[in-house]
Design a protein that fits this description.
about 150 residues, mainly alpha, 4 helices, about 75% helix, about 0% strand, rod-shaped
Length: about 150
C-alpha cells in the first residue's frame, strides 16, 4: 500500500540517517513519559493495580533486555582489527564511534531508552500507589458518611 502525504521528499542533504530517526523518536517517547509522569505527580492520572502490574512486568522485561543489549554494545566499543592500512584503520574508528562515542551512537541511544523505561516503570509504580491512596481515602470517606447516617 502506498500513501502519499503530499509532502515533498527531502533533498539528499536533508535525508535523515536511521540513527537520527531513532534518536528523534526516542526523544519524543521520553517527552511522552515526562508528560505522563507530570500527570501522575499532579494527581491527574492513577492506574489500577491489576493493570499496573501487567504494565510493570512488561516495562521491567524491556528494561532488562535493554540492559543486556547495553552491556553487549559496550563490549563492541573498541577498535575493530580490520588491518593496518588506511582504509582498515578508518573503518575501525568509524565502527568504534558508531557503537559508542557519538550523540546518536548505539550505546547512547540504548542508554537513553533504558533510562526512559526505568522512568516509565517508576511512574507506573507511583500511579498505582496513588490509585490505592485514592481508593483508601474514598473508602474512609464513605465509611464516615455511613456512620453519621446511622
Amino acid at each position: 500500500m502506498y500513501v502519499d502525504d503530499g509532502a515533498a521528499p527531502l533533498a539528499p542533504t536533508e535525508q535523515r540517517q536511521p540513527t537520527d530517526q531513532a534518536a528523534t523518536s526516542l526523544a519524543e517517547r521520553m517527552a511522552d513519559v515526562a508528560l505522563i509522569s507530570n500527570a501522575v505527580k499532579a494527581g491527574e492520572l492513577v492506574i489500577d493495580p491489576e493493570a499496573g502490574e501487567k504494565l510493570l512486568t512488561t516495562l521491567r522485561g524491556q528494561a532488562d533486555s535493554a540492559a543486556a543489549w547495553l552491556e553487549r554494545l559496550r563490549g563492541m566499543s573498541r577498535p575493530v582489527p580490520l588491518g593496518t592500512n588506511w582504509v582498515g584503520e578508518a573503518m575501525s574508528g568509524k565502527f568504534e564511534r558508531r557503537a559508542d562515542g557519538e550523540d546518536v551512537s548505539f550505546v547512547s541511544v540504548l542508554d537513553q531508552y533504558h533510562r526512559t523505561l526505568l522512568q516509565a516503570h517508576s511512574t507506573v509504580d507511583e500511579a498505582m500507589r496513588r490509585y490505592q491512596t485514592t481508593d483508601d481515602d474514598s473508602a474512609t470517606a464513605l465509611r464516615r458518611i455511613a456512620s453519621t447516617e446511622l
